[in-house]
Amino acid sequence: MTGTGQGGSDGRPLMLAMLGAASISASGIVIKLADTGTVTAAFYRTFLAVPGLVLLAVLEQRRRGPRRPAARAGALVAGLFLAVDLVLWNHAIAEVGAGIATVLGNLQVLFVAFAAWAVFRERPERRFLIFLPVVMTGVVMVSGLAGGGDSGTRPLAGIGYGIGTSIAYAAFLLTLRRTSSASPHVAGPLAEATAGAALGTVLIGLAFGGFAWHIPWPSFGWLLLLALTSQTLGWLLITSSLPRLPAAISSLTLLLQPAAAMLLAAIVLDERPTLIQIAGAVVVCCGVLAVSLSASSRKPEAGRPDEDLEPAATGSLV
Question: How far is CA 261 from CA 78, 153, 185, 212, 277, in A?
Fold first, then answer.
């Protein structure tokens, strides 16, 4: 039987997911080219994406009906976690480069598993406990702490920002899915979460500084491009296609993002990772994939909200 739940027979969900991952993989490079403050970049990439997403959400609501107020509020709250994720990720880019920061930002599947353990008393499988130190070893390798990597100025800070990014993104995923998983809407939750992220970046800027309303026109152009591609097109392609693919294919597709990001950073920004860093990126991606597939192989128990913890769509969307 051929169903869209297994990817369908025409391959369109896979093609859309790959296009989405490709559009998102350039995010770090565009952030570097925009050359604005970390908070400013996070604000404009979300703020400029809101009008288009709201328009798509209105059209979607006409087809699928309105959403519950609680779901809308939950998406806005999730956006606050997304704001933290984006700001920390921008800091990671500044410290270790666009390619390496994208690899470090793809650890959220680990923290989703930790959340399942802490909140739902769902003990991780043995495979998770085996691969966790493997992934963390890869993090040390890819950061430049081992082997004298020169892609950033403060590799230890880059690790901290990368892990913080993954924790914030895991919180974003869990909050959004807890409040919106029962709804067939895609554009609506994304629009509300993006609006919440724009608001969150303003609050972060007011609290910690580093926010600027006025930016040069070239920077504005780069961030507008980022808003239209990664923040809008990439997210919509991925969130609409991944549920129609097997978990294994979804995980592999999303892990193309950090690989493509490192390649693009080398070509566009002349960021040349060492062999140890490249090996570390492979270790991280393989370890995250193994943990993701381990989690997706579990059978959900009755009454458990395991759809909130589905790892198939937990690739980083920064």
Answer: 25, 19, 29, 27, 14
Predicted pLDDT at 303: 39
Alpha-carbon distance 34 to 27, whole Å?
11
- Angle among Cα 301, 302, 303 to the nearest 5 degrees reads 115
H helix intervals, the chain: 12-25, 27-34, 38-47, 50-64, 69-96, 98-104, 108-120, 126-143, 155-180, 187-208, 217-226, 235-241, 247-254, 256-268, 275-296
CA distances (Å), origin 251, targets 289, 292, 311 = 6, 7, 8
Question: Is the pTM here over 0.90, yes or no?
Answer: no
Distance CA 200, CA 196 (A): 6
Ranges of residues in the chain with a pLDDT under 70 are 1-11, 116, 120-122, 124, 143-153, 181-182, 242-243, 245-255, 291-318
Cα separation, 221 vs 225, whole angstroms: 6
- Each residue of 114-152: b (16+ CB within 10 Å) or e? ebbeeeeebebeeebeebbebbbebbbbbbbbbbebebb
The helix/strand/coil state of 83 is helix
Predicted confidence (pLDDT) per residue in 94-121, tens digit = 887 877 787 777 777 777 777 767 776 6
Contacts of 68 (CB under 8 A, 6+ apart): 183
Cα separation, 40 vs 214, whole angstroms: 9
